[in-house]
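tool=predict chain=A
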Amino acid sequence: QVQLVESGGGLVQPGGSLRLSCAASGLTFGRYGVGWYRQNPQKERELVARISSGRSTNYADSVKGRFTISRDNAKNTVYLQMNSLKPEDTAVYYCAVADGSGMYYYSYEYEYWGQGTQVTVSS
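tool=predict ok
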């Protein structure tokens, strides 16, 4: 069956960096669009970055210029490089694989979800 496993979260000081990874198994990963979402108890789930099978990318305004999404299809892995982290970036980050090759916005367009990885930005 399809599995998505996120890793790379942790505690970082404001201004620091983290790189999240999402490793997929059980599907031909390169065919599908992938998104990174985040959620904390005070906010609704937010799509922060998305990438198509053709490597087109799109970012939420809140992370534009600071986060970079990329993919390595040979490794069945998508990355989220997060720089200049702020306390408001604190959340559980989830990767999700869509049921198509494009970039998707709504959570219902994503068929598979990982278990999430906690990112905490605090001094």
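DSSP finds no helices and eleven strands in the chain. The first strand starts at residue 3 and ends at 7.
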